């Protein structure tokens, strides 16, 4: 049985060109980029070229890119780095109830350290009200962290409007763009964000590598101490082959971004239309308009998500009930709780399907057919 992978929001397979580039560079560029000899200088050149590729993809300057171990570290650096650097100015932070746990758990830790955090609610589409954010702003607010696109339901937040709002406020503006990057065009200057987090494994690149965009003049307190790597912002010998592989994945995404977006939309529509044609009853969780092109979260009445996911697995379909970081947890999705409230049916009958570069229309239709048989028993 050939499996159908529809969980790209959790992680993506490495693209063939990325695998080739990554493996070649593992043999070729083994040098320490901080070394002054030729082998080290060669690694440094490749690192700098890759950093420039990453920066260009979001309209940034290469000096504004900090290489990290992934999205979690990038989020943590933005939040803790801001809090510790600006605690004299204030201890108030604003975020949302539906952030990734890399943000939420970081904020919860800061609360234990004496910071105050406002968690903005969302509507039933999973989107915040900018007016509520405006009302939550205070003189001592030092950071606003709002994710670009949600990893569970795909809802896109009004980041540009928030950027405009914060023009006249000293708070730093951070967005977790891990799920959005590579599936939608991003420009940090247009969005007016100060900090932006990205992870390679969400865009068919290597795992364990990512970056934090830090706008010039924004000061963060480093979380790691050691050498002077990353312009003294993030100590540790750089994983040069992984950065090169990451840059290759970015190149591929940038070259084909429009066609990739259209492909994801086609896959999503084909999947939903096939379910409808088979008579499957479902509702879409999240926004129909302001949504990432590759993510769809649906609620199927009279189903239990844990049993349903096992049935999908047995049928050769990989899907998810939400964040992969909560796999194995019996707790309901905090995103769906924020959207619908506690003890609502959506908490027990919702499944996320997410599409990627290796999916075909035939695959998603086949998956929809298998799903209909599971649900309808025919």
Automatic annotation (TrEMBL):
It catalyses: (sulfur carrier)-H + L-cysteine = (sulfur carrier)-SH + L-alanine. Pfam families: Aminotran_5. It comes from the Bacteria. Transmembrane segments: none annotated. Keywords: Iron, Iron-sulfur, Metal-binding, Pyridoxal phosphate, Transferase. SUPFAM superfamilies: PLP-dependent transferases (SSF53383). It is an enzyme of class 2 (transferase). Its EC number is 2.8.1.7. GO terms for molecular function: cysteine desulfurase activity; iron-sulfur cluster binding; metal ion binding. Residues 4-365 form the Aminotransferase class V domain. Its cofactor is pyridoxal 5'-phosphate. Signal peptide: none annotated. The keyword Membrane does not apply. InterPro entries: Aminotrans_V_dom, Aminotrans_V_PyrdxlP_BS, Cysteine_dSase, PyrdxlP-dep_Trfase, PyrdxlP-dep_Trfase_major, PyrdxlP-dep_Trfase_small. Belongs to the class-V pyridoxal-phosphate-dependent aminotransferase family. NifS/IscS subfamily. This is cysteine desulfurase. It comes from Psychrobacillus glaciei.
